[in-house]
Write a structure and sequence with these properties.
Layout: H1 2-20, E1 28-29, E2 33-39, H2 46-60, H3 63-70, E3 77-84, E4 90-99, H4 102-113, H5 125-137, E5 141-142, E6 146-152, H6 162-171, E7 175-180, H7 196-204, E8 211-215, H8 221-234, E9 247-251
Parallel strand pairs: 1-5, 2-3, 2-6, 6-7
Antiparallel strand pairs: 3-4, 8-9
């Protein structure tokens, strides 16, 4: 009977560990949780998609980004990389990863590179924001800053309005930054979208310290991403002048 009682207690303890976690367990502290949300709609061709990915690859291992990470109180950030298109096309390419140094940054880049990009139709920025919010809510990290980094070459054309998703995210204490890619290319026979930057500024970005960095074409994407990541990681109001070539910095009324 005594052995049976011990077995029941052990089973109950295992059950609690499985569903509730280790008693007193503390979430790992990081200086930032960041979702990189990248547009893979059909308006982004194969060459542009590769340039877009390469921009993140180069920026994530860049010394200025690594220096910004090392300058934080915890000397670590948690990053996840997702690709999005239409309202139901949201794919986590590389899940939550703690980056502390070049080795961990390179390992994260390698995980992304190992997964082929899968383009899809339509452009739902709102769907991407909603998906990224859920990722941040379930990250399991302890942090004072939660950021969604949205990049793309088109405005929201499916799902609920982008501003509605933005407002819900901001209400949860999440900041959304934007990296619109201005190509000047026709969009499936339609004239180029001249209002893309305004769309991102007015309806996409928001929250404390929110900002835009505009990439003037995919060739300028690496510099734009680098400038953006340095600012996001450092959490400062200063633009990184060394990495801003080919991009425009735009502040927003949400900045604090």
């Amino acid at each position: 009977m005594r052995h049976a009682t011990k077995f029941v207690r052990a089973a109950a303890f295992a059950f609690l560990l499985f569903f509730c976690g280790t008693p007193g367990a503390r979430a790992e502290p990081v200086d930032l949780t960041l979702v990189l949300a990248v547009d893979v709609s059909y308006s982004v061709d194969a060459d542009e998609a590769q340039l877009q990915r390469q921009g993140y690859f180069d920026a994530l291992v860049h010394p200025r980004v690594l220096q910004a990470i090392a300058g934080g109180p915890n000397r670590a950030i948690a990053v996840a990389y997702m690709e999005w298109a239409g309202n139901w096309h949201n794919k986590i390419v590389a899940g939550w990863t703690v980056i502390r140094d070049r080795a961990s940054a390179q390992a994260f880049v390698d995980r992304i590179a190992a997964v082929p990009s899968q383009p899809a139709s339509r452009t739902s920025i709102s769907g991407a924001i909603d998906f990224a919010v859920a990722m941040l809510e379930d990250s399991g990290f302890e942090t004072a800053r939660r950021v969604i980094d949205v990049s793309g070459d088109g405005r929201n054309n499916q799902g609920r309005p982008a501003w509605a998703a933005r407002d819900d995210a901001v209400a949860r204490g999440i900041t959304i930054n934007g990296l619109p890619i201005v190509t000047g290319n026709p969009d499936f026979g339609r004239p180029p979208d001249e209002g893309l930057v305004d769309h991102y500024q007015d309806e996409v970005i928001g929250g404390p310290g929110a900002f835009l960095v505009v990439a003037q074409g995919f060739a300028a994407f690496t510099n734009a991403v680098l400038s953006k990541l340095v600012r996001e990681v450092a959490g400062t109001a200063a633009l990184d002048p060394q990495s801003a070539e080919g991009s425009n910095f735009i502040a927003t009324p949400f900045m604090q």
